[in-house]
């Protein structure tokens, strides 16, 4: 990936020799748009001993033993589902000790930026994880805290009891805003200047308006991304970071980063995207998705899609998600597996970079924090259970649609049908579009047919990729009459373009649109794709030498 993007830049002529010597070739928004991301929380994902029985009491909030080495050993599980990027929880050293609700297992309580969290392993382990991820052609994203440090006051007054000298490199009160606790989260100034912590764990708020703080954070980020070959960042608590610094930070780091602003107003998210950072988790769509699939109101989602489209510069650069480590698991609202399948279909096929949070594929049920952080190993990493097969197929069709048309990830979804309990959206250019038909009726729904207008051209055969059933679009009125059952989602793609998708018995190969269209699947092009990373690197140096000498 990194090599081929370098080659692309070389081919495109937009290159300078100097970039060769930068070790960080992090990936851009455009590159991330083609990816789907699996979010892990290192302490809760996998252990070095591979145990699937080690106890982990999520409500106690203590370290449970997950490691970077454990993550390496379970990369097959992630990759077999079709993900091509992994986001890991924060890596740096956190405060030791415990408060009534636990320890820093999640990584959001920074103490020393220049050391790693030894609970998760050694520097070599993290380097190995990065290498293993990249050897698989996957991207590595790092969750990152730049808003605050952490200090356990354990009920003593945070205004007077924080010893700032313990922090690295921010070892002095001057690097922080004066103590105050956020009292009104709707007052953004308050959220930016005051602390997000409480009176057990204070989260001293970095003075991110100050150039010294900014420079230290920028240098640390550049060094860390370079050291561990990190391709992108999630910025924790971005709402609490001064916006002008977010702008500078994302401009100077350059790589894809998505900043957490937990707001359901499209106007706020779109304002941030316009002015401060290219990407944010799409919370407005998240809340509307819940309305559609857990509260029975599909029109809220249809309306929100339209609002986002007209207010945001680029919905496709936002992060599409239905669970993360901060929100209630979908299955805590409803246990219904068909509804969960509709939610993951929406998440993976709507506009944006899709993220699936560990455990979502196993239909974990934990309500809010910390219950949404149960150890994944208790599932036994069963790759036949719950949502795993559905997610695997959806990842394949998303990737295939992109191979059939590289503009797929930049096209906007639009609504083609709204019933009282069903919605359909199309995404992609005419003839190569993916159409999803979703329902909020749930598993108890009985069979019926639904007539979709405005799908593909009359007479087109289309494959419903989740059931492998083929339909023909009616020749006389161009409607698509779909068999509905058990509230299951339906996802369509033209049958004539299924080769190479790896779905429903079609071969899994990296075929181009022309190859699929003409049925010619052996060519120099396919051979070139088989170049190993090293061969590609060799070709690259050859090309470079030709240019230089
Ligand atoms: C889990 O931790 C909670 C909170 O500390 C405690 O109340 C509960 O008894 C623990 N459960 C088990 C099974 O140990
Ligand atoms: C499930 O995991 C096993 C190994 O545990 C692997 O052999 C198999 O290919 C996986 N199946 C799928 C569909 O990914
Ligand atoms: C906080 O107080 C509790 C109860 O006295 C104690 O167990 C714990 O170790 C203390 N934590 C810290 C960080 O001092
Ligand atoms: C918002 O918060 C800031 C900082 O705490 C405070 O100075 C300001 O008065 C607040 N504004 C409103 C409208 O409450
Ligand atoms: C700690 O915070 C809680 C809630 O914010 C508050 O009710 C309580 O009085 C505080 N305790 C101390 C010792 O400051
Ligand atoms: C950041 O790095 C630059 C370039 O290495 C260096 O000149 C500068 O002093 C560093 N700034 C801080 C605050 O460490
Ligand atoms: C769905 O929500 C919208 C907006 O809140 C509301 O106007 C509409 O009446 C709701 N529809 C149903 C069926 O509840
Ligand atoms: C679509 O499928 C039908 C029945 O399987 C077949 O007769 C027809 O030729 C197909 N149409 C196209 C355009 O491939
Ligand atoms: C698939 O083929 C395209 C076009 O030849 C190439 O750019 C891409 O790197 C290939 N992807 C993989 C995973 O081999």
Automatic annotation (TrEMBL):
Extract the signal peptide range.
1-26
What InterPro entries has UniProt attached to this entry? A-amylase-like, A_amylase_C_dom, GH, GH13_cat_dom, Glyco_hydro_b
- Gene3D superfamilies per UniProt: Glycosidases, Golgi alpha-mannosidase II
Gene Ontology biological process terms, A to Z:
carbohydrate catabolic process
Residues the entry annotates as binding substrate: 109, 234, 326, 373
Residues forming coiled coils: none
This protein's name: alpha-amylase
């Amino acid at each position: 990936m990194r090599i081929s993007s370098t080659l692309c830049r070389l081919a495109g002529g937009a290159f300078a020799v100097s970039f060769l010597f930068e070790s960080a070739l992090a990936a851009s928004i455009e590159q991330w748009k083609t990816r789907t991301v699996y979010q892990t929380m290192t302490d809760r994902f996998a252990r070095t001993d591979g145990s699937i029985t080690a106890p982990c009491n999520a409500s106690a909030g203590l370290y449970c033993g997950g490691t970077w080495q454990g993550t390496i050993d379970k990369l097959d599980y992630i990759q077999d589902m079709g993900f091509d990027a992994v986001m890991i929880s924060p890596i740096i050293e956190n405060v030791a000790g415990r408060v009534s609700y636990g320890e820093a297992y999640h990584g959001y309580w920074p103490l020393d930026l220049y050391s790693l969290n030894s609970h998760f392993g050694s520097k070599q382990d993290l380097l190995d994880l990065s290498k293993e991820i990249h050897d698989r052609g996957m991207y590595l994203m790092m969750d990152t805290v730049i808003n605050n440090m952490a200090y356990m006051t354990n009920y003593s007054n945070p205004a007077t009891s924080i010893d700032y000298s313990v922090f690295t490199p921010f070892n002095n009160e001057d690097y922080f805003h004066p103590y105050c606790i956020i009292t009104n989260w709707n007052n953004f100034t308050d959220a930016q200047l005051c602390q997000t912590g409480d009176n057990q764990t204070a989260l001293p708020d970095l003075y991110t308006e100050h150039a010294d703080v900014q420079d230290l954070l920028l240098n640390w980020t550049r060094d860390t991304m370079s050291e561990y070959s990190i391709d992108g960042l999630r910025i924790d608590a971005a709402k609490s970071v001064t916006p002008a610094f977010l702008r500078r930070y994302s401009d100077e780091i350059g790589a894809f980063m998505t900043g957490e602003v937990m707001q359901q107003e499209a106007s706020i998210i779109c304002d941030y995207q316009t002015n401060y950072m290219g990407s944010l988790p799409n919370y407005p769509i998240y809340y509307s998705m819940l309305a559609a699939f857990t509260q029975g109101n599909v029109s809220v989602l249809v309306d929100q899609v339209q609002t986002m489209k007209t207010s945001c510069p680029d919905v496709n650069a936002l992060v599409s998600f239905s669970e993360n480590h901060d929100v209630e698991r979908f299955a805590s609202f409803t246990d219904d597996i068909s509804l969960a399948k509709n939610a993951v279909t929406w998440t993976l096929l709507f506009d944006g970079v899709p993220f699936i949070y560990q455990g979502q594929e196993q239909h974990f049920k934990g309500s809010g924090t910390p219950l949404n952080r149960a150890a994944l190993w208790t599932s036994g990493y069963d790759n036949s259970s719950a949502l795993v097969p559905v997610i695997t197929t959806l990842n394949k069709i998303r990737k295939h649609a992109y191979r059939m048309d590289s503009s797929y990830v930049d096209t906007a979804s639009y609504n083609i049908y709204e019933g009282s309990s069903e919605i359909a959206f199309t995404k992609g250019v005419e003839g190569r579009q993916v159409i999803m038909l979703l329902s909020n009726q749930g598993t108890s729904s009985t069979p019926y047919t639904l007539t979709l207008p405005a799908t593909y051209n009359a007479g087109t055969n289309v494959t419903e990729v989740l059931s492998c059933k083929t339909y023909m679009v009616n020749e006389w009125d161009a409607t698509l009459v779909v068999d509905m059952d058990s509230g299951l989602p339906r996802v369509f793609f033209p049958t004539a373009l299924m080769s190479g998708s790896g779905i429903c018995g079609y071969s899994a190969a990296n075929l181009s649109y022309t190859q699929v269209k003409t049925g010619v699947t052996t060519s120099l092009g396919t051979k070139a794709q088989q170049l190993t990373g090293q061969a590609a690197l060799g070709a690259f140096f050859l090309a470079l030498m030709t240019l230089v000498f």
